[in-house]
Amino acid sequence: MNTVAQRTRGTNSATPPAGRGGRLWGQLLRIGFAAGRGTPGDRLRFGALFAAAAAVAVVALGVVAAIATYDGREARDQARGPLLTDQRQDAVALWREAFDAVGEVQHSVIYISPLKTDAPPPPGLSRWPAPGEAMLSPELVREGGKEQITNRYGRYAGTIGKSGLVSPSERLAYVRPAQTPDELRKSDAWQYAEGFGRAFPMGENLYGRPLGQVLLTLGVLTGLPAVSLLVIASRVGSRTRDRRSGLLQALGGGWRHRAVVNIGESALPIAAGTAVAILPMLAASATDLRIPPTGYLLNSDDLRAAWPMTLAALIVSFVVSLGAVVLLHRVERGGTATRPRSFASKVPRWRLYGCGAGIALVAVSQYFRGTPGLFAFAFGTVAMWALLPSVAAAAGRVLGEKFAAQGFRAGRPGQLIGGRWTVAHPGVVVRLAIAMVIGLGLVCQLQVWNSRLGEKAAAARASEARVGDSVISVYNRDITPPAIRDLAGSLPTGAHLFSLNTNPEQPAPLLQGSCDALRTLGLTCPTAPETVEGGDRRLEEIRRWYGPELRIQATPSHPSLDKLYGQLLVIPQATGQRAQVERAAYAVVPAVNVETPGENWLTGASNKARLNNWILLFGSLGLALLLLAGTISAAAEFMRVRHVLAPLAVLTGSHSIYRSVALWNLTMPLLIATLITGAVSAWHSLFFIAVVQEGSFSWRVLAGAMTGCAVLAVAVGLLGGRAAIRAARTWQPTAD
């Protein structure tokens, strides 16, 4: 430090004289490096900065991965899209898109029939499929094994290469019908393609979200918690740095000198955290990595191609983390500006009133319709969750008084001291409880949102539970009487075929079938359309979906079909025969739709749930970062007071008092905050469900989240007690 005084004596400038600046900056860096290893709480600060730098770098690399993935998806989508044309003489293939589902997840089925065999096939295919062959994406083969997907569209001819898929996890099928091109031309649903090389909405791209939405979700749910962790980590050990900065200021050092010292102190943990963050990126660049819980496979080729952007992101994240440490260490005249500010003796009343107002606003939002009700609910929710930690702190303060009184009566010094500290410093509880409050609220809201199916999807789910796949719908505008005969002859043994006419000009939907088929549903055999009552559960299900006034009629031959308003219904002899019905239907008519009642609503709900999985992923990472920030804040708080506790060992003759004080001062208030937050989360979620009349609340999820918070509260208390014991072992009395 004498060198600092010599360098800065006689000048008010923070810039050292020319020729001697290099030695000064080097010495200041060494001072900072030594301070990072030899000050109280150095290991906590190192770990905090390491974790914060890793979190910021992971978010930055997540942005890089998203941009690189979207670039790759766009390029492959551009290469495989059909160049549709009206000029038949220029066409190289007939092209048609249809949709199917495996496990309630919809995928595109691309029907192609080459007109010029020497034309190159679509990207990802090594050759044109032969008539009656199908090529499937690897993910479709993997997920559709139980549903016999490789036999559904015809003979299985292999998999689609990565160059023909926007992502390795895309579900896609290329099918060449067994019919000749002349037979296919009879349907106006087929289009002519003169090649491939234009962006076309198909496959996985139909359900994607713009890159901006992905980056916004990542930034809000994960980026902001990472920044919060960085801020808290930068402030760990503020008292020690205040004393060091005050000394530098007294010796004439300016903000540049303090910045260099802080850089020397924090550069190593930040560099180590930034370096560790690249490990997931390296793994994803080496192989296609599946991201839980989304199931999405990252294309390793895209990430390898983005290595310049990856390197730039690491450098930027390192600079941002280092800059945050420097900028957040600002010294005022009193030299105490780096410490987080909070109220000391009591919780301000306006916080309690504000939380109550937020709860009231949520409650009255049900009486407003449309946008006003939505805004009332949103603003009330924000106010409630933002100020709920203060309510928990106020409750902890009241109970702290009772704990202290009880500890005094029972002669338990740990309970007495811990209770009095809780009363004296409620702001500490607020800072520690914020992570738990946000975490519990986020978990409950994500669960409720994911449970929302919609009225039609909920009805389809109930229908599935009642009849399974014992009612199967088959429809397509190209189904002709010969196709109906072929389909009836290729159905599984015991399956019956019906036609259902839903023309709105008729009095009611008409179900037609042979007498044997009608008898399987518990019906008579009327030769003229008539409305009947009764029937078995399958007929009841048909009524639920197509009309309660359903009419029936027996047909002597195969049922006829209205092309605009008609569809076929297959009633198998037993459940579990859907794969055979699908195989028979696709062999008769290309691009046919085979579904159970309401299945299209379930696929829509499944698509929504898969999108919500991304919110769950980013939200879970953000929650983990918030809980880590709360843990670090708790540890730093107890690190600040551990030297105050050290003399108590002399008075009590035991180190157990440290654990007792930590448990009563940290664990008990956090447990109280967990109980209050759990109760409010349950009320808020149930109220939301009652208002929107949709969704369900899982008490198991809430219990699991509260258990996790309780375990964290206990761990914080135990770690705080352990830190105090370590400090007591090295404590020596001084003449102060």
Search tags:
single chain; 736 residues; alpha+beta; seven-stranded mixed β-sheet; elongated; disordered N terminus
Description:
By secondary structure, this protein is α+β, with helices and mostly antiparallel strands. The chain folds into 4 domains: 2-9 and 22-74 and 209-328, no CATH class; 83-198, no CATH class; 349-453 and 603-729, no CATH class; 469-595, no CATH class. It contains 24 helices and 16 strands. It has helices at 2-8, 21-38, 42-80, 138-143, 181-184, 211-235, 238-250, 255-276, 278-286, 300-305, 307-328, 349-364, 371-410, 413-424, 426-451, 455-467, 481-490, 515-520, 537-546, 578-588, 599-645, 648-652, 656-692, 699-729; strands spanning 82-85, 93-102, 105-114, 133-136, 155-159, 172-175, 191-196, 290-291, 296-297, 472-475, 496-501, 510-513, 530-531, 551-554, 566-571, 593-595. Helix 4 links the parallel strand 4 and strand 5. The longest helix is centred in the last third of the chain and has 47 residues, at 599-645. It is elongated and about 105 Å long. The model is unreliable at 1-16 and 332-344 (pLDDT under 50).
